[in-house]
Design brief:
The structure is a single chain. The protein has helices at residues 14-24, 41-51, 69-83, 95-99, 108-116; strands at 4-7, 28-32, 56-60, 87-88. By secondary structure, it is α/β, with parallel strands linked by helices. The chain has one domain (4-116). β2 (28-32), α2 and β3 form a beta-alpha-beta unit. α1 packs across α2 (41-51). It starts with a strand and ends with a helix. The model has no long low-confidence stretch (mean pLDDT 92).
Length: 118
């Protein structure tokens, strides 16, 4: 069993948050991906990656509607390399991210199709 903590994407605090989470013994940190509510999670996870050594790093959660799957894959791969394979990609329906754009969350079939191309 693992225990993760979460935070909003705050570029001025991400490195310090990661250091503190690691010092407190958390297994990982999740960074919310909801534009209009916080900053960019991939930038913040990159900062966290360079500020920590063992802390797992994840999006909570990104979605394939507001973020094109190819761009998301590139960001995740970059973080995977930067962090030494500590990146976990959380993908979901995009509830708050889409609500702030006046759109309904993606249906599960849409998430699957856009994420896998199937």
């Amino acid at each position: 069993m693992q225990f993760w903590t979460s935070t909003v994407a705050a570029p001025t605090r991400s490195a310090a948050f990661a250091k503190q989470a690691e010092a407190e013994g958390w297994d990982g940190m999740l960074v919310v991906d909801s534009q209009n509510l916080s900053g960019d999670p991939y930038v913040c996870l990159g900062q966290a990656a360079t500020a920590s050594e063992r802390l797992g790093l994840a999006t909570s959660v990104t979605n394939p509607v507001t973020r094109h799957p190819a761009v998301t894959a590139s960001s995740a791969l970059t973080l995977q390399r930067l962090s030494g394979d500590r990146m976990v990609l959380g993908i979901g329906r995009g509830d708050s991210a889409l609500a702030h754009l006046g759109r309904a969350p993606a249906r599960l079939a849409q998430v699957y199709q856009r994420s896998t191309g199937a």
